[in-house]
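Service request form, structural biology core

Requester: graduate student, group of Dr. S.
Request type: structure prediction, single chain
Budget code: on file
Notes: please return the result as structure tokens.

Sequence provided:
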Amino acid sequence: MDWQIMLKLTFLGGAREVGRAAVHLKDERRGLVLDYGVLLNEQPHFPAYVSPREYDAIVLTHPHLDHSGDAPSLYTTSKKPILGTTLTFEIFRVLIRDELKISRGNLNFGRKEVKKLLRNIVTVNYGAENKVGRWSFYLFSSGHIPGSSYVLVNVGGKRVMYTSDINTINTRLVRGAVIRDVKPDALIIESTYADTDHPPRKELEKEFVVKVLETLADGGVALIPAFSVSRAQEILMILEHFGVTRKYPVYVDGMARIITRIFQDYIDYIAEQGLFLDALKHSKFINDPRMRLKALKEPSVVISPAGMLQGGPVYEYLPYLLDKEESSVFFVGYQIEGTPGRRLLEQKIIELGDKTIRPSLRIEKFDFSSHAGKTQLLEIIEKVKKEDMYVFVVHGEEKKAIGFAEEVSSTFGVNALAPVNGDTFTV
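Core staff response, request fulfilled:
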């Protein structure tokens, strides 16, 4: 009988770390795979393998590579459907091809597997019931980036909520997630910022713009390493809102240009649509190296990937600016441990070729997070909790994940755990 079902949850990746998110849900027959990402550091790290015989479908919550970047490896033999929003897959096509291009053969898949995955895409709408085998599930906007989702799964009377990356705060780019009162048997929740609260968005925007304008007034370049998906566009909208784009040249480089154009085609996913379109009118897209040289010779803002300095056109600017005291690097996103961005921010050093450099330019970080802070995460749990619920804390550095699980247990009196990769639990 359905009420007797035993549901197993296996954490294939993303436990006590930020990256390679992957969860396998399985009843006595088959299951679902929720995300299947990659951890990109000096060398890529992948989730544990799961056989296509063990699942009916894959659900992709959003296209960031830490949630999607190893999904093609599941298509060496499989033809199982992979489900997500239309915008998620539009961006995924761009990111996965770029990953292939820069990977130098270090991935578990090639173009053949990517093509096979793309042939098995099934796009879904927010709030609509989706059925695959015995599994029923719903996707709702997670407020993380346009098109991103959190997932509610039902099978045999058991309910699981997977937040993936979630944000309940409204930003100019995307509205915050609305949390359903679902009372799941298991909640899988991220913990990227489980030990801190973010500053109020409007105050942060003003502080950021003041610093940008100070750099420009000094005759410098404000270099903003930004994630191509979402963060670059939000920063562009903030600069537009405060009139910076009308006073100074604001350049957008690299893949951020491509993603911005995709967002333009899916404008319904954008919160402040008019502001987004105005920002496009008043910004400049880097199309050739001469434009980069021009940007370096005048007070300007340059928004460029990669957001953690792990490559990308940001390195077309950095070597020229490192000894310029009037210029600045403004980090506007999370810096994973071990990345060049984290080292520059914390140790004030950067490696260029075989040289380690201690730069003269100003270095600051602004917490424009698209992840819920501690208070918001606790509010999510308060909204959905029930007495015998399990809470699995994932997608956070080890100390944060363990600490948050302990706090959730003591605060709500539920079974809260910070699993390690490979752990299996029965709910």
